[in-house]
Structure formats: C-alpha cells, structure tokens
Design a protein that fits this description.
Blueprint: H1 17-27, H2 34-40, H3 68-73
Length: 83
C-alpha cells in the first residue's frame, strides 16, 4: 500500500484543534468522550446546528456536582458553584 503524498503544504501546519476535535468525533463516537472533548475545547456551550442560542445558565451544566461522599472524605474540597 502506498502512502498518500501531500503537496504544497506542511502536514503539521494543517493540524489544528478543530481538526483534532473533528477526528475524535469520528474515531471515538461510541466511547462516550464527546462531552468531555467539547468542554475541554470550550465548545460545549457554543452554538451549533441544532442549538441556536447561548443560554447563560448553560455554564452550570459544564461543571458537575461533586459527590457528598468525596467532600466528606476531603475537607479541602468545596462544592462547585450552583450546586
């Protein structure tokens, strides 16, 4: 099998975070990683095709509540805002 040749551009310059995010969408579609990827890249609360407007309350859904058992086990942990 022959490798495909790229001409006219450096292949590393074509790799951006958007390209990586799109590739992970296809590669890990059944792994349940999409939400974490969107949060990590700051796109979870952004608009997309079927989500037209930004809701300020959407920031609450980015951070999940910390279980009370974890807070009880470590006195240095504080609950995330809004929970």
């Amino acid at each position: 099998m022959r490798a495909r040749a790229f001409t006219g551009a450096d292949t590393l310059s074509a790799v951006t975070t958007d390209v990586i995010l799109r590739e992970r969408l296809f590669e890990l579609n059944s792994e349940g990683k999409r939400r974490q990827d969107l949060i990590r890249h700051g796109k979870y609360t952004a608009c997309w095709q079927f989500k037209e407007t930004y809701c300020p309350a959407a920031d609450k859904i980015v951070l999940m509540p910390i279980p009370q058992t974890q807070i009880d086990a470590n006195s240095l942990i504080t609950q995330n805002p809004g929970y």
